[in-house]
Specification:
With 368 residues, the protein is of the alpha+beta class. The protein contains nine helices and 15 strands. It binds 2-oxoglutaric acid (AKG) and fe (ii) ion (FE2). Pfam families: 2OG-FeII_Oxy, DIOX_N.
Length: 368
Amino acid sequence: MAEKDFQRIPILDYSSLKYPDKRRDFIAQLQHALLNVGFLYLSNSSIEMKVVEDLKSYIPRLFNLSKDEKDKVRMSNSPHFLGYSRLGSELTKGKVDYREQFDFGTPHVCQWRPGDSEYKRVWGPSQYPDEDAIPGFKDTFEAYLHQISELATELIRLMAEALGLSPESLSKFYDTKEKMQGLCKIVQYPISPNPSISQGVGPHYDSGFLTILLQASSHPGLQVQNLSNEWVDVPPIPGTFVVNFGRALEFVTNGLVRATSHRVISPPMGSTSPRYSVPYFHNISQDVWINSPQSRLDFPREILELKEIRGDLTRTDSINFSDYETDVSGDVYLNGRVKSHPDVAQKHYPERFKKFFPEGLPAQGMAY
Ligand SMILES: O=C(O)CCC(=O)C(=O)O
Ligand SMILES: [Fe+2]
């Protein structure tokens, strides 16, 4: 089972958790995904399919809103980096990401007060398009957000168990619900308009512990990079979610868990519709120092031996989010947002903006 490299993404059946024998299998497969792949498909999850189908039916309508409606909720209105970003506003590795997106957070009341750390201001309320322009969208999306964040909380427990830890041992990186906010994007990858454009989003690692992705249309395009530098396709499988692990979890487990580089290829010319996806990033607490003694996790010997058998991970891509080594999690997150969305930062975090962009506003942000 414990292959060092992978050619395919394992599919884990969440409903098997109900049966003790199958549950053991699920935990073993989860361990394999954590250590060796960094990605998995989850089938039969706790998310109601009706909520998913309702959400999917709204997505084309969301992107078909008029420019005016989209501009009303543009991200630069928001000190929380939540709102609409137009097509091609971010770069990854110096190349334009050919995608358009809305960033929403799980419902959250901003708790920042003057004098608090600046990163506390990053979490706050979302901007939703006018109810009249897209009736029922907000309720449907919030139902989805609620279910996906509950699933993520449960997965964090199962991941701890799969790593030989007590189920709550990763929960110390999460605060009580009202102090937390997850980020969920709704993304449109338009059909490539000419052969020189194919980067939906360039190769990158996610930053946190856990991402749960809904591929909301039938397009392929998502690919993950194995240790032989091959790009492995992760096509949509109806009824499943894609789960992956990020840099913070890789750091805090001292490389035991694998964060895996991934990218999205735009729907090629000749496709008949755009690709849609909905990634949910299950953020960790803002006050966590990943590199502090309090964050240390004591793995049982047999788990550490598995890591030795596997060996250290070679890097398939340039590192992003290496600032977990030195910075508190809230600052790593805010800095990531500043780099991705400099126009928002210039308006709401002018001092920090100047540190990253001493020469003034660039034409695009740097996503990764
Ligand atoms: O759209 C996708 O399938 C993946 C998006 C992604 O990797 C990201 O936004 O971090
Ligand atoms: Fe990603």
